[in-house]
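seq:
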Amino acid sequence: MGTSQKFVPPNGNPPLGAVPHPAAVNATAASFAGLTAKLEYLSLADFEQVRLAYRFADEAHLGQLRNSGEPYITHPIAVTMQCAEWKLDAQALMAALLHDTLEDCGVTKVELIERFGSPVAELVDGLTKLDKLQFNTREENQAESFRKMLLAMARDVRVILIKLADRSHNMRTLSNSSRTKWNRIASETLDIYAPIAHRLGLNQTYRELQDLAFRHLRPWRYAVLAKAVTKARSRRRDLIQKVQKEVETAFAGAGMPVRIAGREKTLFSIYKKMANKNLSFAQVTDIYGLRVLVPTVTDCYTALGILHQLYKPLPGKFKDHIAIAKLNGYQSLHTTLIGPAGVNVEFQMRTEAMHIVAESGVAAHWLYKVKNPDDAASDRLGSQWLQSLLDIQDETRDAAEFWDHVKVDLFPDAVYVFTPKSQIMAMPRGATVVDFAYAIHSNVGDRTMAARINGESVPLRTELKNGDVVEVVTAPVSTPNPAWLSFVRTGRARSKIRHHLKTMAHTESKDLGERLLAQALRSEGIDRIPDEDPQFTPVWEKLLRFTGSKDRTELLTDIGLGKRIANIVAKRMAHLLAENGLRPDALLLTRERFTAHETAVQGVITLDGSENASVQFAACCRPIPGDAIVGYLGRGEGLAVHTHDCPAAKKLQIKDSERFIGVDWADDPVRPFQTGIVVTVHNGKGVLAKVAAALAAAEADIVHIDMGQEAIHEHADLRFVVAVRDTAHLENALRNLNRASVVLRAARSKVPMPG
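struct:
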C-alpha cells in the first residue's frame, strides 16, 4: 500500500438509543478508538505513525491519573483530537500525544528522536520549554510581553497550536482541580493564551478560552449572566427566526445561494461590554446576530445591498474588513440593521473560505488544504496575509519557515529576548547587543566590552533574534566607541553614546584649556598654573568670581572650548598672584616675549592628530602637516585649525583677532589627515577605477568622492577627499594622478569639499 492511500475508520457507532456505561466512556476516552474517526484525512502510513505515538504515550503515562480520576492518557488524546479538528499533520498529532512525556515520564529527547524522528522530538521539546516559562505577575504590560515571548520563541507554529489545544482541555477540566488553582490558571488563560488565540485568528478557541476563564474567575457573575442570556434567548427566539426567514426569502428572490447561521455574543464579551461602557444587561443590544455565507467576494457586497434594502442600517455601524483585513487575517463585512420591533441585529457577510480563516485563523492553511486539495482558486481566501502563508507552505513544506513569516507579520517592529536572569526584554527589530546593553542600564552600555548570545561570543553589532539569551560582558576601563553610532537602532543607546562622547570631549577641552592657560601664564612670567594649595585658594576664588565660573574645571573647559580667552584669564591671575606676593619671573617673561609666535598672543600649541574632539581641522581648507596654519578659538566650539591663507580664517582675523592663537605641527603626527583634491578627467569607461588605482599606488586613502552632474560631458571634475600623511605625501599622490592617461589635471582643491 502506498503512502497516499487514505485511512478509512471502522464504523464504531453504538446502537441507536443505547446509553453508554460510564466505565465504557472512560475506556473509550483513554483508547485510540475515540480518535480514529478524526484521522480520516491522514494517509495510512501517517495513521500508523500516530498509532505508534499513542502506544508509546499510553505506556509512558501508565498508572498516572488526572484530578478527575481518569487515566492521564485521556488528556493527550483530547489535545490530539483538537489538533485533528484543525487538520494538523501527523507530526503535530504525534507531538500532541507525546507532549507531556518529556516533562512527566522521564522520557529523553534522544529517545523520542530515535523512535519518532527529529521533527516530532523538536515539537515536543518546544512545548516542554514553553511549559517551563513561568508567568508570575499580573501587570498588563508583562502579560503582553509574555504572550509575545511565547509566540516569538516558538520555532514552529504547530507548537503554539498544540499548546492552545492543551490549554483548552485543561480549562474544560479545571473544575476537577482545587479551587485554589482556579484564579491563577484562569487569569493566565485570559491574559496570555486567549490573546494568542485571537492574534492567530483562532476565533472558536479564543471565545471558548475567554468564557471558561470567566466561569472560573467570576463564578457568581458568570451564573447570573448565563441565566439572563438564556431568558433573553427564549424571548428573542421568535424575533431572530422571523428575521432569518425574511432574509432567506430576500436572497431567494434575488437568486443568490446563501447559508445563514445565528451568532451569539459570548458571556465574557457581554460582561466586558457592560463593565467598560457601564451598561445594564438590557442595554446590550448586539447579543444576537446573523452570519451570511456567500460563494464569492463580490457576493458579499451584493448581499450587503440586499440587506440594506430589507432593513434600515444603523448609521456608523458599517465596517469593511474585506478591503482592509485585520492583522490576524480576519475578513468580513459587518453591518448593524434596525430589524422588526426596532431591535438592532448585526449581520456579517463572508465567503466560506473567509469563514474558515475567521474561525481557525493560522490553522486554516491546513484545514483549507484538506477541504480543497485540488482547488486552483485558493486565492479566494482573499487575505493576502494568509495567502502568502499558503504559498510558502506549498513551496517549502517547511513549518519553521512558515512560522518565521507569521512572526514577522504579527510583530513587525519587535524581537523578544531574555536577560541571563530570564527577564523578557522587548527590542526593536534590528536592535543589536549594544542596544540591549543600554536598555538594561546606561552604565552597562558605557562599559560594554564583549557579548555572548545563547552562550556563544558574538560581535557587538550582532542583531538580536527572538528567544536569544543575551549576556553583556563589561569592563571598568571600557568606554563607548563612536563607531557604535553607525549600527545602534534605539534612540536611548544613540543618545547615551553621544552624551558620553560629549563628556569625553569636555574632558579633552579641559586638557586643552589647561595647556592654553599654562602657555599664556608663561607669557606673563608665571612658570606654571597654581595648584590647589591652600595658599592659592584666595587667588582661585577671586579668579572664578571674575570669570563667572563655578569651579576650576569649568574655567579650564571654557578656555579649551573658546568661551574664555586664555591670555585675559592669565593677566588677571598674574595680577592676583602679585597681590598675593608671587612676582613674575623676569627672565622667563623676557624669553617668552622675544620668542613668541608672530601671530600669537598665548604661545604655540603643537598638534599631532591625537587631540580628538577638542581640535577641529576646518573643512573649508582641510589643513595637513606641512601647511602653514593658524588656530581660532570659536565661542564654545573649541579650537579650529585653518591654513594661514584660508579666506574664511582671514575674515575671522579681521573681526575677531584676539581669538587667534599660534599652532604648529608636531614632528611626528600620529595619524593621516584629510584634504581635498579635484581631478579633471576624460570621460570614458573605467575612468574612476584608473583614478582610484593611481591614488592607491600612492597609498592615499579615498574618504569621499563627489562626481557631480557632469557624467554626460566629455570632461568631468571628480572631487575627492583623501587621507595623507603630509604635504609631501599629497604631492606624490598628485604626481601619480597627473601621469594617468585619463587625467587632464589633478590639483589640491581650494574650495570647501563635500564629505
